[in-house]
Design a protein that fits this description.
By secondary structure, this protein is an all-alpha fold. About 65% of the residues lie in helices and about 0% in strands. The chain is elongated, with a radius of gyration of 18 Å.
């Protein structure tokens, strides 16, 4: 049983914040009904979302090196909805995936990433290099988790699509 596959099972209960109570399931992959999979794939390019999210880390790393970018204001960066992925998670993602326990985890990890990014910028601007580096490490960790959850979603959607494809003779 895969870790992520257990998280993407539709359940009535949200996933605990401490990650110790995972949904129990015998499924081996993300489970989306065929109509759900098609709807998500039609409105959301997961690969583009991953690439867009991954562009944040090098951009933030420049702040650690003393490069200032006026677009990276802590009060804006702190808002997870300031990114394309954050906007989709709050809108289309909620309607398409909100019933999966892992949706809440993805939302929390993404929000945490933005909180750590804002904290890192504040520390860097205050000249607190060690604290800025610690916050950046938190950004990297949360970012990897966001990407892993998105990749698992992508894998599950691809599997749903393969099941829908008619068998060729």
């Amino acid at each position: 049983m895969g870790f992520f596959s257990r998280l993407f099972q539709p359940q009535g209960k949200p996933v605990s914040d401490d990650w110790t109570s995972l949904p129990d399931s015998q499924a081996s992959e993300l489970v989306l009904l065929d109509d759900e999979a098609e709807r998500v794939m039609a409105e959301f390019d997961i690969e583009e979302a991953i690439q867009s999210h991954e562009r944040w880390l090098p951009w933030l790393a420049q702040v650690l090196q003393g490069v200032r970018d006026e677009r990276l204001r802590p009060e804006v960066v702190r808002q997870a909805e300031s990114s394309e992925l954050g906007q989709w998670l709050q809108e289309g993602g909620r309607s398409a995936l909100g019933h999966f326990p892992a949706y809440d985890m993805l939302l929390r990890r993404h929000r945490y990433f933005h909180q750590q990014a804002a904290l890192m910028i504040l520390h860097a601007e205050a000249g607190e290099a060690q604290r800025a580096e610690q916050a950046f490490n938190g950004c990297q960790h949360a970012s990897r988790q966001v990407v892993l959850l998105l990749r698992e979603l992508q894998r599950g959607l691809a599997a749903s699509r393969r099941r829908q494809a008619p068998l060729s003779s």
